[in-house]
Amino acid sequence: MHWKAVVLYALPTHPQATNVSITGRNETRSAATHIPRSEHSISRVNISPNALKVLYRLKDAGYQAHLVGGGVRDLLLGREPKDFDVATDAHPDDVRKLFRNCRLIGRRFRLAHVMFGREVIEVATFRALQVESDEDGDQHVDDEGRILRDNVFGDIEGDAFRRDFTVNALYYNVADFSIIDFTGGMADIEHGMLRLIGDPDTRFREDPVRMLRAVRFATKLGFRLDPATERPIKELAPLLGDIPPARLFDEMIKLFMSGSALANFEMLRHYDLFGQLFPLTEQSLAHEENHFPLTLISRGMANTDDRIEQGKPVTPAFLFAVFLWQPVRERAAQLEAEGQHPAQAMQHAGTQIIAEQAAVMATPRRFSLPMRDIWVLQLRLENKGRRSLRVLSHPRFRAAYDFLLLRAEAGEVPVSLGEWWTEFQETNPQQSEQPLSRTRPRKRRRNRPGRKSEG
Fold this sequence. Notes:
The chain is α+β, with helices and mostly antiparallel strands and 455 residues long. The protein is built from 20 helices and ten strands. It has an eight-stranded mixed sheet. The longest helix has 22 residues, at 316-337. The chain starts with 32 loop residues before the first strand and ends in a 28-residue tail after the last helix.
């Protein structure tokens, strides 16, 4: 479902930039549009006081100072920004001189983080547009069009055109409280449109992760993708295979732990992107004749969204357990057919699938171990009996129990099985709080002959 952005003031019509080459060749730009304070809805009342401190100190020191990115976008949409980013013509060392509570980060492109307790205001120097190569022949993009270097300081206009989406390229100028729009972002916000700046094919090749960001922003904002932006996605989806696994894991967290997990899952599959993140799962979904796996994942994503909305904790371990359950089941069935005991087959299957998935997307050990526990415990939950009390005391029981309920909702196991464990917990509340194994009290060591007692 799409919804139109709510802007409290009428937006002026203005030309949008088209045919922009981010590599600096044959670029055509429209003149910047300046929207005065009387024609937009952003008020300093809704801006972090710490962000205002940074903006005003930069301005008073003679530098340009602008809020930029998602903070400006969210303020225009009447949302509470997650953070506030500042763009300036001051270089990082200049920023550090102005703020004692500042530290510089980054190697390829240094950023200044101004610290106010737990709040961090990120200050970035304007970056220049990419060029195919510099005067010394140093390449900035590879043969596939992927960015190799992006660390050249520039001006505000170049900074705007090197950003990804028009709605993220709006600058709130603290000098006169106006909004500066180089790319038509204000009109796109008004029309609920998510549009890449420049040629989509080129921009996606520069950084394939932008395809995932397009999905995430579209679902987060309730915007529709511009037809030109969405057109090359399916064709270019395999480029995600060249992205480092650790970076894909970070993007996965943003996609599925921000309150729009179900919508992102459906949209990723629509654009053939999900299979690039979870190829084993996509194979199972494509060849599975029954509806259990797809229903399980959909219910799991909806459950995650509900927990986030209610302020309850969620963990990547549970999400990965949901996504990879069907490949694990299939692999365990193969191993059982080869003669392995069901519990052993499940353990080996979990280990193998996690290793194969890690080649695509890195999974930290602190998440992979709980995943295997959740899977292995499913066998013990299905075989309720005299050892049920021991299962109840397992540290991962609660997660495994929630997983069992999802399987019941999907029709994979009887609903009565989940009901039995629900009643069993209620009748044994203390047992479920006990650790998996009790440590026996250490025996006091007796003093050996000829050995003095300590103390």
